[in-house]
Structures are given as C-alpha cells and as structure tokens.
Design a protein that fits this description.
The complex is a heterodimer. Chain A is an alpha+beta fold. Chain A is 17% helix and 28% strand. The longest helix of chain A has 9 residues, at 60-68. Chain B is α/β, with parallel strands linked by helices. The chains are: A alpha+beta, B alpha/beta. The interface between A and B is medium-sized, with 17 and 21 residues.
Chain lengths: 96, 293
C-alpha cells in the first residue's frame, strides 16, 4: 500500500491506493483542517515535497481554488489529491 | 494615535488579498473565461452595481466583461455571478436558449441552496437566519416557492415568534453564509426551546468563520474600529459583531468617507476590510488615519 509521510508531524501512514490525503490522515487519527472536502474552501492546502507524480491529477475545481489561494506550484488540496504511490506531504498551518 | 490593521494574512480559507474566497474565485473564473473565449461576456448578477468593485473595473471592461440583472440585455451567453441566481432566472435563461458559459456562484451559496432544497424535499418548513433585506433572500425564496413551501426569515431571536407553526411541525434551519456564529448559536438555542423537530445545517461560510473573530479581536484591542465595506452580508455582520464589543464603530465605503472628528481622544484605531474590499482601499484608509496621528 502507498505510504504518506506527513511533516512536520513526522508520521508515516499507509493508505489504500486512491484514498485522498485528507481521508487517509483522518482515518489514522491525524486532523487536517478542512471545511468542505470538495476542493473549494482551500483550507487544506499542503506542500508536496516528494512524490508529486504519485498523486491524482488536479481537477479544474482544485486548480481554480489553488489559484484563488495564491498557492505555489508544489501545493495541493488534501481533500482532492488521491494517493497512488509514496508521497511526502507538508501540512501548512495558519500563520495569521 | 496607533493604527492597527486587522490581520487576515495566513487565515485558512481567506485569500491573501483579503477578499473572500467566493468573490476572488468568481473573478478568477470570469477572467479565465474572457481570455479563453476571447469575446464579450455578460455576468448575470443579483447586484450588478457591485459586481466588479473588488477589482479594477477597467480591467474587466477591457476584457469585455459586463454585468446586468436583466436577461433582456443578454444576447447569447452569460456567466452567473458570485451571488448566484434564483431558479426562476436560471429557467428563464434556459428557455431563451442562452448559453451558460460558467457558473461563478460562490460554492458556499451553492451549498446553502442544496441544503434548502434537501430540507424542503424532506417536507420540512424552511427557516433561514438572515437579514430580510439581504440580496440572497430572493434566491432562497425562489427555491421555496418552486417547491411550494413557505420560507421563514429570522434575523434575531425576536422574530421566532412570527413563525406560525406548531411545536411539532418540523423545521429545517439554514443560515445566511455571512451570519455571525455567535448570533447563530443564540437563535438556534431559542428555536430549540420553541420547536421539537429541528433540523440544522450550518451554511455559514469559511470567510465569516474566520473574518468575524478577527473583527472581535480588533474591536476589543482598540478604542475605535473602521470597517471598510459595502456588502449587505459581510459588512453588515462585521459592524454588528464590532458593535457587540464597542460603540465606536465606523463603516465607510471609501477612504474619503473618514471624518477625523470620529477619532478625537482615541489612542488606537483598528481598520479592517470586508469580503469585497480591495486591498488598496484598506491600505489607503490606514495611511490616512496614520497621517492624522
């Protein structure tokens, strides 16, 4: 099964292929801030530091939300990105 | 006089430019389409006068984008604007054969409409916590009318007594997306006192959940607070929220509206923009207040 390495938590979890980062983490008791689970709220942006090619492609909805939030090229939404292979994910916390 | 700007930077769900997600997202969709299709596009809007205030209007006009609330002014294609549209308008547009090239309705407005439809289809009586004059009321009223059900608008606890239903008749409660969560909790508590069969869907948007606590924080930390905005939803709620903390709340639509007399004797002033207020306007307000100091 694919592995997600979550930083800065330094936790490694295994998930079934096709599971989103959000659902995978939630099932393992790791809370990721989110408000919608449909790729629109932009609260669950994460930076993919390794294995970006092992995630599902961005949908148009996710792409628009990432642009709305001025996200960087390595950023994805945890509720939309499905894990297909090993990946390292940096959870971005509020800095306000 | 110290001037403190409300800090929205880095708040989850609020874009970096301080606009709300729905407004900024709609602007991105509209500009993307204008570029892709390379032809004039009309936005059907519940508030065409407000449609481009968050951005540089000339930029939208240069891209061939305009706004109207009159389908007669639309020849062939349209985009539904951020505030959405009543079902009757959507049906009329379809009947006229107008092409819907995009629906830029705020996703939280869409979610609210879906909740309304779900409650109504379950046979519940729809209760909406909202200012009765809010621009979103025609949408929800249109949905209720289409499904042959009444809509009860409840802006405060006092209006609960106007709901002409018996205790056991079921109600489904939704809220205006910009409703203040503290008012929401208070009204829900009173509804639970009055009714036995209460279904609740929290349709408050992420922006209200994040922006309004910053207003509270700022109002408590300063002697006076300036809110720069004009939207019936968010600006009204920001003023209401600030007034729960201080009497010195000043709502302006433009930095030119500032009156130095408001701040006599104040040691500190807070400034914060609403969900459609462009960043330059907040910065200009801060600069002018600092010049008074």
């Amino acid at each position: 099964m694919p592995k997600i390495t979550l930083i800065p938590l330094n936790r490694v979890i295994e998930v079934a292929a096709g599971t989103t980062i959000l659902v995978g983490a939630t099932r393992q008791g790791i809370a990721i801030t989110h408000d919608c689970t449909e790729g629109i709220c932009g609260t669950d942006i994460a930076r993919i530091t390794a294995g970006a090619e092992n995630l599902s492609a961005k949908t148009e909805t996710e792409d628009i939300t990432l642009e709305t939030m001025d996200a960087g090229p390595d950023d994805r939404l945890c509720c939309m990105a499905k894990v297909l292979g090993d990946v390292t994910v940096e959870i971005i916390e509020e800095d306000g | 006089m110290k001037v403190i700007r409300g800090n929205l930077k880095g708040k989850k769900g609020i874009p970096r430019n301080g606009l709300c997600l729905g407004v900024h997202r709609a602007g991105i969709i509209e500009r993307r389409l204008a570029k892709k299709l390379n032809r004039p596009l009309t936005i059907w809007s519940l508030r065409p006068d407000n449609e481009f205030l968050a951005y540089d209007k000339a930029d939208f006009q240069d891209r061939g984008l305009s706004a109207t609330d009159n389908l007669d002014e639309i020849d062939d294609a349209l985009i539904f604007g951020v505030r959405g549209a009543p079902p009757q308008v959507r049906e009329e547009a379809a009947k006229r054969g107008l092409e819907i090239v995009a629906d830029a309705t705020c996703p939280y407005v869409v979610e609210q409409e879906e909740a309304a439809v779900k409650f109504l289809e379950l046979g519940l009586n729809l209760v909406m916590l909202s200012d009765p004059n809010h621009h979103g009321i025609p949408r929800i009223r249109g949905i209720a009318e289409k499904l042959g059900r009444p809509l009860f608008i409840v802006p405060t606890v006092a209006e609960i007594e106007d709901i002409n239903l018996t205790r056991n008749e079921p109600i489904g409660v939704i809220v205006q997306t910009t409703f203040w969560i503290e008012s929401y909790k208070e009204i829900i508590g009173a509804l639970l006192d009055r009714f036995a069969d209460v279904h609740i869907r929290n349709t408050a948007c992420i922006d209200s959940l994040q922006r309004l606590p910053v207003v509270v924080e700022l109002a408590r930390a300063t002697d006076a607070i300036v809110i720069v905005g004009w939207t019936e939803g968010m600006t009204t709620r920001m003023v209401e929220t600030a007034k729960s903390c201080t009497d010195k709340v000043f709502e302006i639509k433009h930095p030119d509206d500032l009156d130095p007399a408001w701040f006599r004797g104040a040691q500190s002033v807070g400034v914060i923009g609403a969900n459609e207020t462009p960043e330059w306007m907040v910065e200009e307000t801060v600069n002018r207040l600092e010049a008074l100091a």
